[in-house]
Amino acid sequence: MKQDETMKVKRYDDTNVNPDFVAERKKCTFNIELLTNIIDGSSYLTETRRQAQLAVLNNESFSNLPDRYYASRDEAYAQNIRKSAAYIKLLKEDKSISRAESYFMQCLIFPNEVPPFSLHTTMFTPTFESMADEEQKKLWMPRIENYEILGTYIQTEMGHGTNVRGLETTATFDPSTDEFIIHSPTLTSIKWWPGGLGKTCNCAIVMASLITNGRNEGIHPFIVQLRDFETHEPLKGGLTIGDIGTKLGFHGMDNGFVKFDQFRIPRRNMLMKSAKVTRDGTYQKEKKLEKLKYGSMVFVRAMLVFNQAGQGLAQAVTIAARYSCVRRQSEYAPGQEEPHIIEYQAQQHILFTELAASYIFYIAGNKLRELYFTMNYDIQKGDLSDLPELHALSAGLKALTLDEAVVGIERCRLICGGHGYSAASGIPKIYTEVVAACTYEGVHPVLYLQTARYLLKVYQAALLSSSASSLPDNQSSKYIFRHLHSERPRFHFPLSFVEIVEAFERRALMCIEKASKKLDGLLATGRPHHEAWNYSACYLIRAAKAHSHVYLTSSVHEQLETVRQEDAGVYTVLGQLFELYALKSIVDHAVEFIESCGITTDQINICIERIEALLLNIRPNVLPLVDAFDFPDRLLGSALGCYDGNVYQRLYEYALNSPLNKSTVNVAYFVYYIAINIS
Ligand SMILES: CCCCCCCC/C=C\CCCCCCCCCCCCCC(=O)SCCNC(=O)CCNC(=O)[C@H](O)C(C)(C)COP(=O)(O)OP(=O)(O)OC[C@H]1O[C@@H](n2cnc3c(N)ncnc32)[C@H](O)[C@@H]1OP(=O)(O)O
Ligand SMILES: Cc1cc2nc3c(=O)[nH]c(=O)nc-3n(C[C@H](O)[C@H](O)[C@H](O)COP(=O)(O)OP(=O)(O)OC[C@H]3O[C@@H](n4cnc5c(N)ncnc54)[C@H](O)[C@@H]3O)c2cc1C
């Protein structure tokens, strides 16, 4: 990114800070900057992020006016298009902007928003790059990279989302014209939900059943132009397109529908890297590359762990923590000043356990992102051996971290009392964005079952192997094999960090064994496989969750081992958060740990006592721990969570700006009430 010499806006206003915050920040026992580097991934990424954020704050085209919480849907969409236009212009003009810089800029330009063009970068382009052949890339990529083509990803239909093989849209090859005919044969086959489809995008990858020579060859991707490149009108020839209407959140996003009525596209618009239809209609495929078509789903699922679960929860925690250090309530000691609500143990238990979870998701999410890019490098070159592990991990972690994050965000809102319910707190917006991610890219029961399907295969292979070296070289195979072929360790309380990871692994292995036994038991009674699988679902989902917890604890433990060499202060606070998250999970799933690790209820009680001690340990650092996330105020968009802690002034300003306050007597009240009931 080109450096801007005129950068003048500071990311924080550190004048006029609430004195309570000044006192809190003085209690800090560790190097905040070092922890920020860990959260970002490196000091280089911290610096990159800050520069990118400054560039956004200095650019008036990216302001959020009119106020984002008062905007109607039309206004919210228009604001997003205005900012998108400026952002895309910038990306086109400054080719030195890196992928990381553009990512950081986008997060701040569209705070807690998925903007209308985002499907272009997250799904349309990656799917095209992965599924198009070289000639197709040469033809299309320049216009895609130049944003002349703005694409979305069209898979889901009104009647089918999860069951991709059950999609009804057809792409029938017509050899007489060398074209595919895209068609929606029923009401339920209307494509429904794609982001940016309603009003914004001019092209799409459409997933449809390929039919040639009378045979249905299954779901394949096609690139389809939807709108005229000049007038932006939907193309003629069989398209009905629109916006699907208001949703729980995503107000600035035009999720859309499209009905195809015998709409024709050239044969070469089928993406032909792993399968093709020749001029005479012959279908050919490379079986080994078949699963590449699922690739963009794996990508987004892997990114959602740090981007939505980690960042979303961390933002809610930051808001709740800062507010808790300002808000005073109730008489604690008779006759004395009301304490800050942060001093109540009940508040600490919720706030600090969510703080711990946000650190775990952020750090594990960063590691998953790195793992994705490492593994995907080989996958794109045609070596798909890591794909099952990556698919299982990204599916399970997307589900588990988002499940826990949305509950955590709501708990943060609740511990802010009444002001948490105001849009001004910023938490409702965070919630509606993050909870959407629990649905898109796959609903969670379905994703857990995908993870479990893989785990049972790994388990069977580990059972039959006498040496780990004969198994695939990945984390799942390693820990499952190791614990399957070794004695259960004796656990000592309080648990060491190494023992914590071991305990999570033993628990996961037990859950996998139980799921396997359950399935085998049902099969042994003569039930068909699909039925036995369905009635093992509760066991299978427990196994997938337990396995995902193994990744969370082991990857953060790995991070801790590195930090230990570097800085004692950061190691101590990060260790406290790790222990708190792990112990809370053990207590929440006590039955599974008692059974799998041979521990007692008394030892669970030791964990409960230890959690209370950790709350006291964490208390002095609470504000520095959320400061370390380094969220600019604009990103949080919160009167309660600003860096300077001037909560009440901002709440008052927010209310004064309410459109309802533009007049002293509202016209509706005058017309409908006074006119009818008082005159
Ligand atoms: C800090 C530095 C920054 C650096 C820069 C970072 C860059 C970051 C960039 C971006 C950040 C992005 C942040 C994200 C922002 C979010 C924006 C997103 C906006 C919204 C997008 C929403 C898009 C959508 O929702 S698209 C629709 C998604 N739909 C689904 O997910 C449907 C779910 N259903 C399915 O996945 C499948 O149909 C199914 C798997 C459930 C069932 O299918 P099936 O019946 O055919 O499968 P089987 O069960 O029979 O399995 C067959 C076989 O295939 C394997 N399989 C299945 N899925 C996959 C897969 N995805 N990958 C690989 N393999 C898969 C399965 O395991 C089976 O294998 P076997 O070997 O066992 O046979
Ligand atoms: C905000 C948002 C943005 C989206 N963006 C896009 C997009 O850009 N492009 C796109 O193509 N799609 C998009 N989608 C669609 C999304 O991917 C689907 O909604 C999602 O995959 C779920 O499919 P469905 O809605 O058909 O639910 P269904 O598949 O009907 O599932 C409903 C419920 O049934 C249960 N269930 C279903 N199948 C099973 C099973 N096999 N086992 C156990 N339980 C099951 C689950 O509890 C599930 O929650 C978006 C959705 C949302 C909410």
UniProtKB/TrEMBL annotation:
Active site annotation, chain numbering: E441
Q: Which residues are FAD-binding?
A: T156, G195
Q: In which pathway does it act?
A: Lipid metabolism; peroxisomal fatty acid beta-oxidation
Print the keywords alphabetically: ATP-binding, FAD, Fatty acid metabolism, Flavoprotein, Lipid metabolism, Nucleotide-binding, Oxidoreductase, Peroxisome
Q: Give start and end of each Acyl-CoA oxidase C-alpha1 domain.
A: 294-456
Task: Quote the cellular component terms of the Gene Ontology held in the record.
Answer: peroxisome
- The UniProt record lists the keyword Transit peptide: no
Family label: Belongs to the acyl-CoA oxidase family.
PANTHER family, per the entry = ELECTRON TRANSPORT OXIDOREDUCTASE (PTHR10909), PEROXISOMAL ACYL-COENZYME A OXIDASE 1 (PTHR10909:SF250)
Recorded protein name is: Acyl-coenzyme A oxidase
